[in-house]
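Example record

The entry below shows one chain as it appears in the dataset: sequence first, then structure tokens.
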Amino acid sequence: MDKPFETFDDFWPYYVREHSKKLTRQFHFVGTSLALACVAGAVFGRKPWLLLAAPVAGYGAAWISHFFIEKNRPATFEHPLWSVQADFVMWGKMLAGTMDAEVERILGEAAARENGASEIDEPVVTDAPTDHSVN
């Protein structure tokens, strides 16, 4: 990371690169789904102890994937709020079936920059939308 992120849109490509392996993203999807199920169970089942299980389920699966699959440090450690937001964006994109294309787009842009394309001389143009909302 060259400089601190100023916006979520600055952070998102970094987050995606840190989740480049499909299995890592699948672990995150399962963890986020389990965390959401814990919250729903706490609210609808009137079992408040499930609120304590939510972060364990969510972060447990995510951190395992970072340490053993991706072999990097979770973004949560340095950017906790943007990381949680990005987790939900990624979860939504996975649910919609668009996350793999998002990873390809961002990794392609990074490769183009590494191969000498500068934003001034040779901008990377894609048709992919940059909307990071969860639909």
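Notes for this example: The helical segments are 8-17, 22-44, 50-70, 80-96, 99-114. The longest helix spans residues 22-44.
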